[in-house]
Automatic annotation (TrEMBL):
<dbReference type="Pfam" id="PF01872">
    <property type="entry name" value="RibD_C"/>
</dbReference>
<dbReference type="InterPro" id="IPR002734">
    <property type="entry name" value="RibDG_C"/>
</dbReference>
<dbReference type="InterPro" id="IPR050765">
    <property type="entry name" value="Riboflavin_Biosynth_HTPR"/>
</dbReference>
<dbReference type="InterPro" id="IPR024072">
    <property type="entry name" value="DHFR-like_dom_sf"/>
</dbReference>
<feature type="domain" description="Bacterial bifunctional deaminase-reductase C-terminal">
    <location>
        <begin position="4"/>
        <end position="176"/>
    </location>
</feature>
<protein>
    <submittedName>
        <fullName>Dihydrofolate reductase family protein</fullName>
    </submittedName>
</protein>
Length: 184
């Protein structure tokens, strides 16, 4: 049985984007963190995205073609391209990446069936909130970066109560920390 994992970069004060929607405070040139994240994502069979997160991540469909990119970028691009993607959107009509389908609503039973085939991620705080509320998320893995932004889009939604067990932690030279929790 696979796991449904929710993992994103978050500020120390718990935001995935600041009040202006910017997430450029992330540590994009931390190749150690990038390699580690690629290793975490390698076993993922399906990425579940909201529309906005998909529009950000579709970059990986052609990232391997960019000149002068570090090898870590091409490696993650291959991992991303090899996985299925489902975009949950009521407005998106077409997708611009292979192995990608559109779903209008998050169907908990369909997600449970997908978990039978391997690991999945839920990406984007809005979609993750729905998956958390439905009791679908098996692991939560914030990648905490050393910055405070004071407000914006929260990593975890209000009103969700979870009991968690810490199963892994990893520190990076950049000051980022990955914490991996299993839901109980």
């Amino acid at each position: 049985m696979g796991r449904l994992m929710y993992s994103m970069m978050t500020t120390l004060d718990g935001y995935t984007a600041d009040a202006d929607g910017d997430f450029g405070w992330g540590i994009e040139q931390d190749m150690e963190l990038h390699r580690y994240f690629e290793e975490l994502m390698r076993p993922v069979r399906t990425f579940l995205y909201g529309r906005r997160m998909y529009e950000t991540m579709v970059f990986w469909e052609t990232a391997h073609e960019l000149p002068d990119e570090p090898p870590e970028m091409a490696e993650f691009a291959r991992t991303w391209q090899a996985a299925d993607k489902i975009v949950f959107s009521r407005t998106l009509e077409t997708v611009s990446s292979a192995r990608t389908t559109i779903a209008r609503d998050l169907d908990p039973e369909a997600i449970r069936e997908l978990k039978q085939g391997g690991d999945l991620t839920v990406d984007g705080p809005g979609l993750a909130a729905a998956a958390l509320a439905a009791g679908l998320v098996d692991e939560i893995g914030p990648i905490v970066v050393p910055v405070v932004v004071g407000g914006g889009t929260r990593f975890l939604p209000d009103g969700v109560r979870l009991d968690l067990e810490l199963v892994e932690e990893r520190r990076f030279d950049s000051g980022a920390v990955h914490l991996r929790y299993r839901t109980r």
